[in-house]
Amino acid sequence: MSETARQPKLIWKTPLRDLLRGRITGRLDWEGRLKRAELPDTARELILRVVKRTRLWRLEKAAVAEELIAHFADALDAGRPIDSVVERFGDENAAVKLIRRAKKRNRPLVWHALRFATYGVWALLLSYSVVFANFYLRQPVVSVDYLAQINADALALPPEKRAWPMLERAMVNLGLLPLYPLNDDATEQQRKLAKLLESNPGDPAWPELMRYLDAHDAELVQLRAAFHMQKLGFVFGPGGTQSDPVLGLSNRPASEADRFLVRTLLPELDCRRYAASVVGADARLARQRGDAERFVRDLEAITAFAQQPDSPFPVNQLANIGIFTLAVDEMDAMLRDSPSLLNGDQLLALTHQIARYGGDTAGSLFSLESDRMTFHDLIQRCYSDDGHGNGELTFAGSKLLQTVAFASSEVEGLAVATTGVTTLLGSRRDVLAEYDRLLDIEERALDRPLRESAKDFTDVTNRVREIRGSRVLTLKYLPIACRFQNAWQCAANAERAFGRRDGVCTGAALELFRRRNGRYPERLDELVPTSLPAVPTDRISGDPVRYRLIDGKPVVYSVGCDRIDDGGRVMMQNGDLIEALAAEWDKAAARKIRGDWILFGMPQELTP
Amino acid sequence: MKIESDLMRGAGPVAVLRLLEGGEKYGYELVQALEKQSDGVLAMGQSTLYPLLYNLEAKGLIASRTAMAGNGRERRYYWLTGNGKKKLIAATEQWQSLAAAMAKLGVLGT
After folding, report:
1. Is the CB of A105 inside 8 Å of chain B's CB atoms?
2. In this structure, are A443 and A321 located in the same domain?
3. What is the rounded average pLDDT for all residues in chain A?
C-alpha cells in the first residue's frame, strides 16, 4: 500500500498531541508496525499476545510494542536463534501483569488522583450503603415497662383507699364527666359549666351557680372526702383506669403503643381541676352566706387535694399548684372582703394547713424523675440496643421522633433528614449521657431557690439552644433537640405558689394582730413570734418581704423582678392590675416589667 | 545458576542502576551487559527487564528517550537520574554491608 493511501488511516492512529503539532506519525498503529517488522512469526505472535493482553492505553501499548520489537530485532541481529530469544523472554503471563502494573505507575499524577478519588467514591458509597441498610434494618428494643413503674404506687393501693372512684362518681353526678363525650352538645354543656364555676358573687351567672351548688350538696360531700384521701389511685395506660366507660375513652381501642409514656393520656388531669373548681366555687358561696365552717371545710379539702399524690408527671404537679393557688386565692379574698368570717381558731387552723404546703424550694413539689423515665422510654423506642446500654437510631425511631417532636419545625425537618446523614447521629449512650447531665443540673437547681439557681437553668437552656442551633449537634442529640423541656417554668410556678402561700399566711397573721390590737402592726417584725415564726423571705430578692398599709389596708409584697421597691404597686397590663406580673426571675423580664409582686392585699396601680 | 526471584527482586534494580551509571543504554544492551558482566547469574528476560525499567522510571530513578539507532531502528534509551544516582550509592552501601556480614558468617568466601 502506498504512503498516500495509508494517510487517512494514519491520522486515526496518530496521537492528538502529534496532530496538534502538525505531524501525522501513526504512532498508535503498533500492530501495523509489528506486521511490517522483520521478525519471525513466533516472535511477532508473542509480542502481539503480550501487548494486547496488557490492556494499556494505545500509546502505552505502542511504546511497549516498539521496545519489544526492537529487542527481538537486536537479538536476531546479534545472531541469536529465534527459539532461544523467545525462550529467554520469560513467563508470558507474568510479563503481561508486570508490564501493565509498571506502565500504570508511569501514568500522570492527575490520572492517579482521579483513580484514587474514584476508589474513594466507591468506598464511600459502599460504606454508606452498609450504614444506610443498617439504619433501615435495625429495630428498637422495648425492654423496660416504664408505665408499670409509674403505675406501681396506684396498683399497690387497695381499691377502697383510692380517691378516684369516689371522685369519679361525684363528677358524673355533677355533669362534669365524661370528659371526652361523643357528641358536641355535651362538650358545649361542659364548657358552659366550667365557665359557670368561675362566677363570683355579683356576676350575672352567680345565682345559677348557687342553684347548681345547692343541688349538688351530696356530691360536694363526696368531693371533699375524696380530696382528703391519701392517694388518687389512677392507673394510667391501656387496661388502666382510662378504660372506665365513664371517662368516655372506651370508644378508643387501647393499644400497646399507649404504653409509650410520651403518649400517656392524663384524663384525670382536667377532672381534678374541675373538681377543685367546684369546691372553690362552694367556698365562695360559703363566704357569701357567712358559713365559716363550710368555708374552712372547702379550703382544707382543696389544700389537701393539692398535695394528694397523683402521678409523677410535672404537668400533674403544675395542676396541683393551680389547685393550691385556688385555695390561696379564696383565702386572700376572704381576708380582704370578709375578714371577720372565721373565728381565731378557724383562721389559725386554716393558716397552718396552708403554711404546710410544699417547702422552700420547687424540689419539694417537683420531681423530674418521670421526665427522665419518659425520655428513656422514648430512647428505647427509637434506638437499637446492643445489650450494653448502647445502640443506634433506627429508621422507625426517626419516624417516631417526628411525631412527638415539640421543638421547632427546623428540628422536625432535620428528623426527616436523618435518613440521609445517619453517620452524624449520636449513639444511644451519647444522647442519654447528655440528657441525664442536663436533667441532673435541673434537678439540683430545683432544690435551691430560683433566685440562686436561675443561672443553672439558663445554662441548660443555652445548651439546648446550642444543640438546636447547630445542625451537627442537632443530629448528634436529635431526641434532645426534639423533646427537651426546660424545668424553669416548674420552678417559677412553685416559687409563685410559695410567694402567695407566704403572703396569705402573713395576711392571716396581720388579721389576727388587728383583732388583738385593734390596729395593724407598723412592721412585720411585730408578728414574730406570736403569729409568725419569722418574716417570710422575698422569693426574688432574698430579703424579708415588704409590708405597708395603703388606704388603711395591709399589702404584703415582693420587690418583683426589677428588685425596686415601688411601695406595693403594680404595672397595669391590658387595663388590668396583675398582682403577679412582676413574679419573674429572668433578667429579660426585669428589663421590661416594673412594679412589685403583690403577695397579699389589694394591688394599686404604679404611676409613672 | 538460577537466582531465587526474591533475591533477584532486590538485586535486579541495583544491577540495572549500576549498568546505567556508565551511560545510557537500551533494553537489549542491558540484557547483554547483565548476562555478560554477571556471568549469566543476573541474566533476565524481557518479561523481567522491561517491567523493572518501567518501575524505576515511575520512581524517577531513571529516565528514557526514544532515538533512531544507526540501523534505522527506533530504540528507547535509559539513563540514570540524580535521584537514581543517590539511590545507587545508598543501595551499594547496603549491599556491601550485606556482603560483609554474609562473609563473616561464612556464607561468602573470604
Report:
1. yes
2. no
3. 89
Count of structural domains, chain A: 4
- A142 inside domain: no
Q: Identify whether A288 is part of a domain.
A: yes
A539 neighbors A550 (Cβ within 8 angstroms): no
Same domain, A174 and A292: yes
CB pairs under 8 A between A and B: 74
Q: Which structural domain range is residue A573 located in?
A: 491-606
Containing H/E element for A104?
A: helix A92-105
Report the residue of B50, B55, B64, B74 to disrupt the A interface, i.e. the one with the largest count of A CBs within 10 Å.
B50
d(CA A202, CA A439) in angstroms, rounded, equals 48
- Say whether A571 sits in a helix, a strand or coil: coil
ipTM field: 0.90
Model's pTM, two decimal places?
Answer: 0.73
A152 lies in a domain? no
pLDDT tens per residue, range A226-280: 999 989 999 988 888 877 877 766 556 667 777 899 888 888 888 899 999 999 9
Domain identity same for A172 and A313: yes
d(CA A493, CA A474): 29
Parallel, antiparallel, or unpaired: how do β-strands A604-605 and A569-570 relate?
parallel
Lowest mean pLDDT segment, chosen from A305-319, A333-347, A500-514: A305-319
The answer to whether B47 contacts A89, with C-beta atoms less than 8 Å apart, is yes
pLDDT in tens, A322-351: 999 999 999 999 999 999 999 999 999 999
Q: Does the CB of A184 have a partner CB in chain B at under 8 Å?
A: no
Same structural domain, A326 and A250:
yes
